[in-house]
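Weekly sync, protein design subgroup
Attendees: M.S., D.O., the rotation student, P.L. (late)

Item 1: inverse folding check
M.S. brought a backbone from last month's batch and wanted to see whether the design step gives back something sensible before we order anything. D.O. pointed out we never logged the input encoding, so this time it goes straight into the notes. Structure tokens as presented (49 positions):
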């Protein structure tokens, strides 16, 4: 079976989505705390969380 043109891009996008889903699954119960520092805390502070 021959793969369609551009299959590497689709594989990369699916892989990145799986990675993002795994990060969300690990951190789904974590509450962002502004004193923790980092980009996530900065975004949470700007969004009013």
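Designed sequence read out in the meeting:
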């Amino acid at each position: 079976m021959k793969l369609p043109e551009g299959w590497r891009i689709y594989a990369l996008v699916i892989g990145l989505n799986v990675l993002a889903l795994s990060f969300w699954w690990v951190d789904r119960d974590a509450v962002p705390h502004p004193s923790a520092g980092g980009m996530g805390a900065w975004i949470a502070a700007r969004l009013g969380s």
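Discussion: The chain has a mean pLDDT of 79. The radius of gyration is 17 Å.
Action: P.L. to compare against the previous round before Friday.
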